[in-house]
Amino acid sequence: MVIGVVKCTEENLVALVPQVTSKLIKDEYQIIVESDAGVASGYSNELYESAGAVIASRKEVLSKADIILTGTAIEKTDLKQITKNSLLVGKFNGRVESNMLTDLREATAQVFSLDLLPRSTIAQSMDVLSSLASLSGYKAVVTAADEFAGYFPMMTTSAGTIPPARVLVLGAGVAGLQAIATAKRLGAIVEAFDVRTAVREEVQSLGAKFIEVEGSQEDTTAGGYAVEQSETYIKKQKELIHETAVKADIVISTANIPGRKAPVLIENRTVAAMKKGSVIVDMASASGGNCELSKDSQTIDVDGVTIIGDSKLYNLMGKQASLLYSNNIYNFLKYILKDGKDNLSYDSEIISKTLLREEEKSAVSA
Amino acid sequence: MVIGVVKCTEENLVALVPQVTSKLIKDEYQIIVESDAGVASGYSNELYESAGAVIASRKEVLSKADIILTGTAIEKTDLKQITKNSLLVGKFNGRVESNMLTDLREATAQVFSLDLLPRSTIAQSMDVLSSLASLSGYKAVVTAADEFAGYFPMMTTSAGTIPPARVLVLGAGVAGLQAIATAKRLGAIVEAFDVRTAVREEVQSLGAKFIEVEGSQEDTTAGGYAVEQSETYIKKQKELIHETAVKADIVISTANIPGRKAPVLIENRTVAAMKKGSVIVDMASASGGNCELSKDSQTIDVDGVTIIGDSKLYNLMGKQASLLYSNNIYNFLKYILKDGKDNLSYDSEIISKTLLREEEKSAVSA
Amino acid sequence: MLEILDYLKDNVLMINLLIITIYLGFEVISKVPTVLHTPLMSGSNAISGIVIIGAIILVRQAEPTDVITLIFGTLGIILGSINVVGGHAVTNRMLEMFKKK
Amino acid sequence: MLEILDYLKDNVLMINLLIITIYLGFEVISKVPTVLHTPLMSGSNAISGIVIIGAIILVRQAEPTDVITLIFGTLGIILGSINVVGGHAVTNRMLEMFKKK
Amino acid sequence: MQYIELIYIVSTVLLIIGLRKLSSPSTARNGNVLAALGMGSAILVAIFSPMTDDHGNLLYIFAGILAGAVIGLIYSKKVEMTGIPELVSIFNGFGGACAVSISILEAYKFNSSSTLGLMTTTYMALFIGGVAFTGSLIAYGKLAGKVKDWRSKVSSYFNLIWLMACIGLIIFQVINPMTYTFLPLVILTVSLIYGLTFVWPIGGADMPVVISLLNALTGIAAALAGIVYGNMVMILGGVLVGSSGAILTVLMCKAMNRSLINVVVGGFGASSSAISADQGDIKETTANDTAIMMRYAQNVMVIPGYGMAVAQAQKACKELDKSLSSRGVNVNYAIHPVAGRMPGHMNVLLAEADVPYSKLIDLDDANGMLTDTDVCLVVGANDVVNPSALDDPGSPIYGMPVLEILNSKNVVVLKRSMNKGYSGIENPLFFHDKTKMLFGDAKDTIESLNNEVKVMD
Amino acid sequence: MQYIELIYIVSTVLLIIGLRKLSSPSTARNGNVLAALGMGSAILVAIFSPMTDDHGNLLYIFAGILAGAVIGLIYSKKVEMTGIPELVSIFNGFGGACAVSISILEAYKFNSSSTLGLMTTTYMALFIGGVAFTGSLIAYGKLAGKVKDWRSKVSSYFNLIWLMACIGLIIFQVINPMTYTFLPLVILTVSLIYGLTFVWPIGGADMPVVISLLNALTGIAAALAGIVYGNMVMILGGVLVGSSGAILTVLMCKAMNRSLINVVVGGFGASSSAISADQGDIKETTANDTAIMMRYAQNVMVIPGYGMAVAQAQKACKELDKSLSSRGVNVNYAIHPVAGRMPGHMNVLLAEADVPYSKLIDLDDANGMLTDTDVCLVVGANDVVNPSALDDPGSPIYGMPVLEILNSKNVVVLKRSMNKGYSGIENPLFFHDKTKMLFGDAKDTIESLNNEVKVMD
Ligand SMILES: NC(=O)c1ccc[n+]([C@@H]2O[C@H](COP(=O)([O-])OP(=O)(O)OC[C@H]3O[C@@H](n4cnc5c(N)ncnc54)[C@H](OP(=O)(O)O)[C@@H]3O)[C@@H](O)[C@H]2O)c1
Ligand SMILES: NC(=O)c1ccc[n+]([C@@H]2O[C@H](COP(=O)([O-])OP(=O)(O)OC[C@H]3O[C@@H](n4cnc5c(N)ncnc54)[C@H](OP(=O)(O)O)[C@@H]3O)[C@@H](O)[C@H]2O)c1
Ligand SMILES: NC(=O)c1ccc[n+]([C@@H]2O[C@H](COP(=O)([O-])OP(=O)(O)OC[C@H]3O[C@@H](n4cnc5c(N)ncnc54)[C@H](O)[C@@H]3O)[C@@H](O)[C@H]2O)c1
Ligand SMILES: NC(=O)c1ccc[n+]([C@@H]2O[C@H](COP(=O)([O-])OP(=O)(O)OC[C@H]3O[C@@H](n4cnc5c(N)ncnc54)[C@H](O)[C@@H]3O)[C@@H](O)[C@H]2O)c1
Question: Are F5 and C6 in contact (CB < 8 Å)?
């Protein structure tokens, strides 16, 4: 069976890195890789060839391969070229409507979007969101530290005692937790906050302080995801966050409600009140941002406060990101191809949830 | 007595920050600050005014003040304007001959260069080299981490186990030690190396591995500074460093021999042999660099290896740097002004060592 | 009542002896780690086999004609000896695990 | 030699008693932390004042005419009582530091 | 021939010191040997010391001792570790029986001249010995599973009454000795029966305590017999066993936190049987046994999970590791990719406690090493060690790679309850018979494990 | 009136239990009380028990007891802590004297009918009591600085001979009692002299051991007297003190690692005087005393320096902190700006051991807090606590701000030797009399400190 890798036009993410390529080849797959697919993330064509893959043009890959792997985007034109019953695997942000999504639904090929994976234990090894979120969480802190004109750890020196930096993490999901851990490591005082009070324990397990807002609306059925919250609650919440943020040197926000606009947690007044030189990293900027002022994939300076808006920080670590991404894809493929490409078990949550298709299609297989 | 602060044309370093300004004003000094002296390092004129200083033109400051403070550089023209027996304090890199230095020697004013301070315990609180080196050491790691497309700490994740980054620190002085500490904090495996075997203990006290080269030429009399080494030794040393560096993801070099060209520790072959994506931070670039290829205050990419040449990394943390710098200056002033500006005790090591003057002058006072 | 007190008075040494021995018994054990509960039990159980001495004396003083005494006495000796020998042996086995490696 | 052995035989109870008490003495102290060396010393020293009982008996049995005995006996009592009372008092003082705060 | 007394004294001291040494791990073995020496010398003296109206009968004596020794040795050799408590119980029973047989014989030697004290002592020896005898047999039966638990409300009342009966009989018999010749036999029977009814209602779980109690009784019986024969060693040895046995019993109760009262007045075994009742069939263990297991293991594998994070047990873990390593055990950590709640969660924690990276083994290598791991210490992990991922296609996590810790020799799971993990599914591991549960907050548990390890030498 | 024996038994038991409790910090105070009760009851019985040829003389008895009690109380109240050993020593001497006075009187009551055993016992009581008496007095003198050390090669031989003489005399006197009436007095004198010559050559440093030894002797004397009067409490109490005293002596020797032999055969005090000899006048202390000091302090300030880094003692430090805090001591860390070898060196380490930031006090605040700090624990710091920076204009570091730890109540310095710090200058701190040195690798030392603290309850 032939597996094809097409270049991701949008991000430094390649769906197969050479190490994983050779693993697949050991499992008797043929691999064809679009020329320069990996360059952006630091994997040259040579590396692929030495791993046993064939370098080809995008056209070739799309037409020849039974299974096509890519990053986060693909053109309508590309879809045309894919042969009827081949599979297309990527991370197409399947919760947020977009033209691409509709195109993908209409595509003849069966399209899987890994961001739709259930957050179940069994799916962990394919969970690209976790892999990338965790990477971004780490990167957020490192970037902030680099941006910040001061020490993170406390320092008692002969030129005076420098207090530790205060870091506030909003949203303690995978990204948030990783951010907390990294900031702690660097010696900062870390406070964190999340609507899901279940997270308290997890935050404390990393030695950070969990700041509480009473009266959170839990929804544990949402599979670990957060649900929108009541008015009064959001007011209280905003107040608390405001106070904490004003004291902080670094604010890292990861709050997301999948498929919806991200909750606004840092208002203008907060930014205005923050110390000069403090840094905000808004990792929800793509879905509207947790910070009113943040602009997606831009770094702006609002009188002395640096606001970095970036939901794809992992792109700055393309090499590592691609490695994790392709491991996830590898695990995914191994799972769905258990009994051959042509009889996928559609009743498995993992397959049914990730598969993009029009309603009738689903009706059929249901 | 009037203390004047002139803007440092060269670096983001201001000789007095508002906090310290007010301290001096409490001690009954008048402070005049050149307009915008602090802006580059994040201190606005307003802040100075609210601290009680007077904002003035450069000309005014130079002519009015009895004691003039600045950063690392000053123009010949400026020197002319300084009144005869006032003092000029800065960090003029007094070990490396330069026109500025000769100008300063000829200057009518008494010029003190704090980088010439003895490395004695008593001088610690004025030791700008320590303060800034330590800041740079920290920054070097943070920058490297940001540059590096991977995790520093080890991570066992469902998308594979990521090994910890390997960091090699060359030269374990103040900067080096701080770099070691920071890299350890971030969870990297740190190896360090220095000619002064005395440092071994200090390196190990930070939990890093000290890589040894036998037969080092110690010179403890050099007051903590390193001396040049024998041929054979340097060969052995190069070999060892080569091997270690090739294994490393991050190399941070701080090796200096004050007043001399920095020792070359990372040769081209080493860089060539290093992994793609690894990062070298050469903090000795100003004095020729520990890495043959590094260019001072430039970041270059030599087939996949990023080489950052920067001896003044603290400039990226101007705010913090200036705070420490001015604390050092404050302590220095308090020391030399013990018995009034006009009877400095020239036999004190701290004063005699830092004072720049022509030989006859020294002869006189000797 | 008085008799008992008299009895005490006459055997004051004995009583002191008993009391102090009892206390010693407590003292000696009081700090044993749980690890040793079972071995210790079995060890002291072996010691309790000291009663065999009674049986021995009994037999020694038995008329060779007095069959019953001989039989039961010997039986006593057998049982006692099992208790003593077996007890110490099995204790030793349990304690093997504490042999230094 | 034999006499001594006889003596043993006759006082077997006493001897057992002494031996066991001695052992108990060892046992009871063996695990004392250095902190307590001095208080313990002074405490047991107070106990050694038990010898006062001897003096008391002596005096009780002394003929009221037997001045020497009375004098030395009473002296003994005084000394002993100093030892006992003072000993316990001073021990108590030392131990104050172990009062729970 | 006055040496006898001396030797007796010596053997007494040997017994005492032996017992003393027995109560500390490092000296225990010597202790046992010393005690044995004490016994030996005492017995020799008993055989050879000159004696009034001595008729020798050495043949019987030697035959008896030899027979006993052989039997004793054989059994103590061929029993396997788990069977030891039963065996001890039987041995103790025999000790009691010995006391019985001599005291019954003595009882029939009484004549008008024999003193009240003597008689009382003898009958008490008879009674206590009898109880120890049959009691131990029942205890044995229970441990060996030959005797089922049986109890009713009344049993404890019945016992009380029966006890009264015994004592009543003895008093009667002492006050008017020669009247009924069969009475001693009656007393004997009554005592034997009391032994049965006393132990029977007690739950199997509590047998160790009971055995220790019966052992103390045997000791007392021996001491009484000693008084009858005016034999110092018997008296002191017996008393020693009696008192130390009593304390030991109390300690054992403490260790399984029950009160002795609650033991003697039945109500036994309630607690321990509880658990096995409501949640399938799990085996609980004590910090102490786990400590021993690890202390004397070659390889220990720690399996950290989210629970370690919650308990913040990482540092305690490192300490335990240190104590074990310093005693030659080698300790590693098997890190499952999804252990905890974020990628690398375990790494963060263990780095904080600075466990060297080289000790962190990842899934595949770990599964390799597990086969020759002696003890797996599961610290608040659950899903990541759930075997149903391997063998139960029905399970929602079927197919997920997990740590196959059942390949190791022993598994001890540290958690607070039987609660489920993140994925909310049952974990068959806990019910597997290789697995022992050690309940409690991971940090506390590990700290006590560490203490236990430390006291062990 | 047979209750007497009972009461005596009770008091014996009280004495035993009292002694037992005295040997563990948490129970010591009750122990002392119990023992006192035991004594009290015993004495009461001695006074009121019916007795053959009793002449009352209660007046004398009460007067004596009262007088003694008053004197004893007064002294024990007004002595200050440091003086206690002296006092104990005197008290013990008096105990000995009491034994002497009764045995000499008994000695003059002997008549042809008195048994050999009785006489031997009496004379031994006399001898041992005498030695204890004068010995204690000398010991007191030395501790109080009233008696100077004096020793010569011969002294130990002389003592040996003298000892022989005593024993010889006693034997002679026992074998032919009534011959010379003055002999008992001679024996007395000889004994008293032996006491002097025995203790005199022993160095003042070792007096505690000696006192404990003499205390054991007094105990034995009491026991012997007890035998003379056939009084159980005296015998048992005396023996108890004798044996426990002996052990205690041995333990004390261990604690200051000297052997008892090396004590008795002189060669005393050598070691302890050594240090003060070669390096100025420093005071060494033991982990144990430091532990007590800290355990019962309100505020402890840890002063970390480069030595902590070298020893990697930060984690141990955190542990000690934990143990102390959990016992209500509050512990802080004074961080000097230049402690260690790089800016923030101490921060890095303490963060690693995660000491909360709030416990890290910087120079100025620390100097503020030091005045009400009870114990300063200097962990491998040197230059940063060098007082010459404050008061010695000649010093190269004069004017540098340092931690003014001499404002605190006690200073304990942990380092390995008297080596200098980075700046290579002497540190007067170490020779200040507030300061005690505790030599050894900081990590090891702190760990043992921690253990000592833990055993303290
Ligand atoms: N790694 C990731 O990125 C990630 C992210 C999200 C979710 N997850 C999921 O989290 C799970 C991780 O598995 P796991 O085995 O590490 O944890 P787990 O399956 O969640 O089990 C944790 C166990 O620890 C016990 N525990 C909790 N607190 C404790 C304490 N203080 N002392 C002792 N025990 C304690 C709990 O039992 P008691 O309550 O009875 O004590 C619980 O059974 C997987 O299902 C994984 O899919 C992982
Ligand atoms: N902070 C900075 O930026 C910096 C940089 C360079 C130099 N310095 C200088 O370093 C000094 C720092 O002062 P400091 O008091 O921290 O250190 P220090 O004055 O250098 O004294 C350290 C002491 O620790 C003891 N020590 C070493 N290893 C030990 C061990 N394993 N266990 C116990 N004790 C041990 C040593 O005595 P023993 O050998 O007898 O044990 C030594 O006296 C100052 O003079 C400062 O000027 C500081
Ligand atoms: N089963 C698995 O193995 C697995 C794998 C990955 C994630 N998960 C679970 O899914 C959860 C969500 O993961 P994620 O990081 O992708 O979530 P996410 O990226 O969708 O959201 C990030 C965090 O933002 C929080 N948030 C939402 N609205 C908020 C608000 N108004 N204020 C503050 N915080 C708000 C959410 O609670 C979430 O914790 C994780 O916490 C994890 O427990 C489970
Ligand atoms: N007394 C004080 O308080 C005080 C204050 C600051 C520094 N110091 C001492 O001065 C020393 C030097 O401080 P610095 O950081 O400014 O030194 P530096 O910046 O001049 O040099 C940095 C390091 O490079 C090392 N080095 C030189 N040649 C080398 C070579 N060929 N290979 C490898 N390493 C080489 C030097 O040994 C030094 O450790 C410090 O280590 C410190 O101990 C003392």
Answer: no
> Is A27 a residue of the active site?
no
Checking if the pLDDT of A252 tops 90, the result is yes
Crossing angle of helices E207-229 and C37-48, rounded to 10°: 30
Note if B130 is an active site residue.
Answer: yes
Cβ contacts of B304 on chain A, cutoff 8 Å = 42
Hey, is E415 helix, strand or coil?
Answer: strand
Pair type for strands A298-302 and A305-309: antiparallel
CA-nearest residue for atom 42, ligand 2, is F421
Two tokens, residue A86: 């081949």
Nearest residue to D44 via CA among F143, F237, F102, F260: F237
Of F338, F339, F360, the CB nearest to A154: F360
Dihedral (CA of F431, F435, F436, F437) sign: negative
Find chain D residues with C-beta within 8 A of F44's C-beta.
none
pLDDT score of E411:
94
Cα separation, B195 vs B214, in Å, equals 10
Active site residue B285: no
- The contacts of residue C3 (CB under 8 Å, 6+ apart) are none
Distance from CA of F383 to the nearest CA of D (A): 32
**A80-137 pLDDT, tens digit each:** 898 888 999 999 998 888 889 989 988 888 999 999 999 888 898 999 999 999 999 9
The verdict on a CB contact (< 8 Å) between E19 and C42 is no
DSSP states along F37-67: HHHHHHHHHHHHS--TT----HHHHHHHHHH
CA triplet D76, D81, D84: central angle to 5 degrees? 125
**φ, ψ of residue C4 in degrees (nearest 5):** -55, -45
CB atoms within 10 A of CB C6: 11
Give the whole-angstrom CA distance, residue E402 versus residue F220. Answer: 71
Provide the shortest C-alpha distance from residue A357 to chain E (in Å).
25
pLDDT digits (tens, 9 = 90+) for D41-82: 999 999 999 999 999 999 999 998 999 999 999 999 999 999
Could you say which residues from 303 to 342 on chain F have a Cβ atom under 8 Å away from some Cβ of chain C? none
Cα–Cα distance, F120 to F118 (Å, whole number): 6
Model confidence pLDDT, tens digit, residues A257-314: 988 899 999 999 999 999 999 999 999 999 999 999 999 999 999 989 999 999 999 9
- By percentage, how much of chain B surpasses pLDDT 70? 93
The catalytic residue among F354, F362, F365, F383 is F383
- The contacts of residue F214 (CB under 8 Å, 6+ apart) are F89, F92, F93, F96, F131, F132, F135, F136, F139, F199
Please judge whether B159 and E343 are an interchain contact, meaning their C-beta atoms are less than 8 angstroms apart.
Answer: yes
| String of DSSP letters for E47-75 | HHS--TT----HHHHHHHHHHHHHHHHHH
List, in sequence order, every residue forming a beta bridge with E435; answer none if it has no partner.
E411
- List the one residue out of C20, C13, D4, F120 whose CA is nearest residue E6: D4
Q: Give yes or no for B121 touching A (CB within 8 A).
A: no
Predicted model pTM: 0.80
Q: Is the pLDDT score of F275 beyond 50?
A: no
Residues E15-24, mean pLDDT to the nearest whole number: 90
- Minimal-distance CA residue to ligand 4 atom 26: B255
CB atoms within 10 A of CB E356: 11
pLDDT value of residue A224: 54
Catalytic, B124? Answer yes
Tell me which of A29, A36, A151, A225 is the catalytic residue. A225
Rounded CA-CA distance A160/B161 in Å is: 41
* Chain segment E403-455, per-residue pLDDT in tens: 999 999 899 999 999 999 988 899 999 998 789 899 999 999 999 899 888 87
Task: Using an 8 Å CB-CB cutoff, list chain E residues near B153.
Answer: 344, 347-348, 351
